[in-house]
Amino acid sequence: MQGRPVDAYPALAPEAERGSVRRVTVVGEEILSRPCAEAVEFGTPELSALIDDMFLTMHVAEGAGLAANQVGVDLRLFVYDCPDDDGVRHVGHLLNPVLDPVDPASRRLVEDAEGCLSVPGAVMRVPRPDRVVARGFDKDGQPLVIEGTGYFARCLQHEADHLDGHTYLDRLSRRDRKDAVRQMADRREDVFARRAARTADLDR
């Protein structure tokens, strides 16, 4: 499993301290609706810089996770800074993630509120398994296995969906999807304004 518990961790992840803010793509843009390309190069300065930028962009947008195609990059990569249901904070990144199959006989589906930085302003209830195991690699090509429960499991599944070309809207009924689109139309400008203000605060 990835990582070890620590006694303290900075509010702003070290990666974010090094990063630059990138534009977040919005549902309807083509890059969000197709599977992302596998990572084949590891340990490069460009990959490290992308991860740093994604962490800061996620922080500014007040997200718990962010996939590379959400910043316009066609790569199977996501980052996360997300609590589980016990309040334990999980911070990291994963390249070329694959989720272990969930046994239908033993899985527990939980329906809970879910939003998306690429569907700004909309929040809908989405059923997902409450436990997941994700396998992939870190930026240096070292194998990783991440187990998530509760809200963190939801985050891992949400970001993996992005890399397959899906948003949570694809999991909704037609009626609920229309509701989410209405919410986005009503609230997106407020969301964009808040992100712009948080970005401006970084320079102060």
Strand order of the largest sheet: 1-2-3-6-7
The number of domains:
1
Distance between the termini: 38 Å
Low-confidence stretches: none
Please report which band the strand proportion falls in: under 5%, 5-15%, 15-25%, 25-35%, 35-45% or over 45%. Answer: 15-25%
Q: Mind summarizing the main beta sheet? A: 5 strands, antiparallel
Instruction: Write out the CATH superfamily name.
Output: Peptide deformylase
Structural class category? alpha+beta
CATH architectural name: Alpha-Beta Complex
Question: What letter string, H or E per element, gives the SSE order?
Answer: HHEEEEEEEHH
Specify the number of helices: 4
Gyration radius from CA atoms, angstroms = 16 Å
CATH topology, what is it called?
Peptide Deformylase
Overall pLDDT: 95
Helical amount among residues, as a percent range? 25-40%
How many β-strand stretches?
Answer: 7
Name of the top-level CATH class: Alpha Beta
Global outline: globular
Would you give an account of this structure?
The structure is a single chain. The protein is an alpha+beta fold. The chain has one domain (14-202): Peptide deformylase (Peptide Deformylase), CATH 3.90.45.10. The protein has 4 helices and 7 strands, in the order ααβββββββαα. The strands form 2 sheets. A 5-stranded antiparallel beta sheet has the order 1-2-3-6-7, with helices on both faces. Strands 4-5 form a two-stranded antiparallel ribbon. The longest helix has 29 residues, at 174-202. The protein is globular, with a radius of gyration of 16 Å. The N and C termini lie far apart (38 Å). The mean pLDDT is 95.
